[in-house]
Fold these 2 entries.
Entry 1:
Amino acid sequence: MGKFDGFLICSDLDGTFWRGDDGRENFEAVKYFTRNGGHFAVTTGRNISHLRENKLDSIVNAPCCLLNGSIIYDYSEDKTLWEKRVEYTLCEFLEAIKPVAEEVTEFTMFDKETVFFKYTDIPENLLNMRSYKMLCRFENCEAADKFVTATTSMDFFKANSYISKSWDVGVEFNPIDATKGTAIEYIKRHLGSIHTSIGIGDYDNDIPLLKCADIGVAVGNAVDGVKKVADFTVNPCTEAAIKDLIEKIEKGIIKK
């Protein structure tokens, strides 16, 4: 029996697991956690290859949430367990946001392994494709906030999209039933032996993760909206937030 048996940690990556460092302390803490019975997964807006490139696939021992929940991927078996694309084509998306798209500086369309484009001159062959996630970038936070307000009120998106900011100038569109929140619920069911799921994050797209986890945790650098829904706050990501979380579990501060 391990001291962390039955615990599942689902962690955001950028701004939570690391920011501007190699995450070494968190890497070692996660290895200690999993050696002693815990399950660890990453929940990120990044794609499948990103975790491999950063050697995160070597420390996770549970399926991971990619593209904010549009893909749930098992690195141990090298296969996709669940996936969902948005319900509209790129052409339909661009037409829907056209009235409020003036300040968008860049569009990014995500597939499993590839960012299809990063420029405003969009290839025609992509126009009829449905992506796993759409990302719009802006020059400043005010423009991004204004865009979120406008698009979330559009009938076109209300029934089929989860719209959130992943950082101050990045606005993401996911299927409404494919968020980090639905992902942590899926991962917990898939593992079957989890008594306590813990979601930890820093930005708006992590709010469903914290809400759907048994215990929601905000890092010290999290935005106010994340801290508001969190049950606990731990160190900022620059001070080994995941290590701090695991120590709090071990000490019984965060418990079953």
Entry 2:
Amino acid sequence: MGTDFQKQTVQWFPGHMAKTRRLIKESLSMVDAVTELLDARIPLSSRNPEIEQITAGKPRIILLNKCDVADEAATAKWIKYFADNGSFAIPVDCRSGKGLNAYRPLVKEVLKEKIRANTEKGMAGKALRVMVVGIPNTGKSSFINKMAGKNRAQVADKPGVTRHNQWFNIGNGIELLDTPGVLWPKFDDPKVGDRLAFIGSVKDTILDSETMAVRLLEVLKGEYADRLSERYKLKNIDFENIESYELLEAIGRKRGMLISGGEIDTERASVMLLDEYRAGKLGKITMEFPGDK
């Protein structure tokens, strides 16, 4: 049973994403800086390497979004990691607005040379233009809505819903260019595809829920077994030796997810597990750390 869950790999690159890549390239000359939204739980896996190449040369601000459901100690390490690599990073939660007060001052700090140059050219007060990029479901629309103060950007939990480039004035002389979420054509590391599936950045139809749940448990039972034990009342479980599918069955049994004949409804248990992980009900969990291979 276990080996079946290893065969499928996550790949998802709809046609509109290729168009988005072109739009980003074409729009780059219009902006002074780039703000990149990453998921604080998987900062590197949620970073599109192609976007990094396309936007190279522009000052970059990184927003580690969903910091409220990420391990705080790990987030602090990521902020240092990005600083050491020449990028400014701040932890935020775009739905609640946590951390976003630091954004406008940071834009002014990052672009202080541009502001000085504009002033010398007699263009003091010229709007600073920042492109907002990120993969699907990292919170770009929520970020823009919070910053603009109006619900003007389309927001949804479905990956890839924002389709066209849009400008938003967020005050303080700053304008944001929204771009649709874009993945890249091939995930070289299967773990990256899995992590993106866990957080919902690829459509759930790409990989069946049982496969995703089993792979999620494979990760969680190593680093966060205590969270699983506490959430699902799993006593006397040997997390080091139990198969992940058996663990899924144990969770389903504890939640009373039984079908005829006493069989466990593992599909229902899988959907529940993924939903609870994404909602932060398992606690603050980070899945990758600086220096991981």
